Amino acid sequence: MPRFCLALTLALACLAAALTAGCGGGAATDKHLRGTYKPYTVRGKTYRPLLSADGFSEQGLASWYGPGFHGRRTACGEVYNQHEMTAAHKILPMQTMVEVENLDNGRKTVVRINDRGPFVSQRIIDLSHAAAKELGITGTGTARVRIAALGDVPNYRNGDFTGTFYVQVGAFTVQENAARLLGALKTEGRTGSRIVESDIGGRLFWRVQMGTWQSLSAAEDARRALTARFPGAFVIAD
């Protein structure tokens, strides 16, 4: 899908400096996250990112992006993984959790905002390949959707996001399998871990989320340490 990755198109000094320095790893850095709150201009149009996602909803076209951007930096500094449930939005704060409903087939999913875009007329969100597959739009390329932010993002203080964070380490269609993993995590001392039930397109999933951490940086450190055991793990805010 044609789109512009903010990490390549925006003239944000902090972002460019971080990229030039070759920041390693897949996690967002403080410098990247601070930069994502600044106004930016693409194709002569200026966008002003929101400081709060509370109550945000929108309706329009969704598109998706995949192989051509897989492994490249997103606007918040993460390495884009087309197999994770993420998306790009022009103004929502990074790390916002968003419910996306395909108005053409009724299917729903939840994604985490970690990039900027799409910069194409009438399109409001650019989904990862995994999210597009959940919504059934990989074949059509676009679909009419309604999006709604699931609460606000955590506070940003002293160069870090603060709040309650979890690392999602698995999603199961069999509840017993989720319960087994949760039991193992609690035995290991992660007593704040939990199971969250979700309905995606009429299909139930039980998501196992390890926790808790009180800052985004601490949760990202934990996620990196868990990569070998849980390759698809990602951080979410409560």
Question: Could you write a compact summary of the structure shown?
Answer:
Lytic transglycosylase with a strong preference for naked glycan strands that lack stem peptides. The protein is α+β, with helices and mostly antiparallel strands and 238 residues long.
Based on the model shown, name its key terms.
alpha+beta; Barwin-like endoglucanases; 238 residues; 5-stranded antiparallel beta sheet; Alpha-Beta Plaits; 6-stranded mixed barrel
Task: Describe the overall structure.
With about 240 residues, the protein is of the alpha+beta class. The chain has 2 domains: about 5-150, Barwin-like endoglucanases; about 155-235, Sporulation related repeat (Alpha-Beta Plaits, 2-Layer Sandwich). Helices cover about 20% and strands about 35% of the residues. It has helices at about 5-10, 15-20, 30-35, 130-135, 175-185, 215-225, and strands at about 40, 45, 55-65, 85-90, 95-100, 110-115, 125, 145-150, 155, 160-170, 195-200, 205-215, 235. The strands form 3 sheets. Strands 3-7-4-6-5-8 form a 6-stranded mixed barrel. Strands 9, 10, 11, 12 and 13 form a 5-stranded antiparallel β-sheet that branches. A two-stranded antiparallel ribbon has the order 1-2. The longest helix is centred in the last third of the chain and has 13 residues, at about 175-185. The two termini are about 30 Å apart. Residues about 1-25 have low confidence and may be disordered.
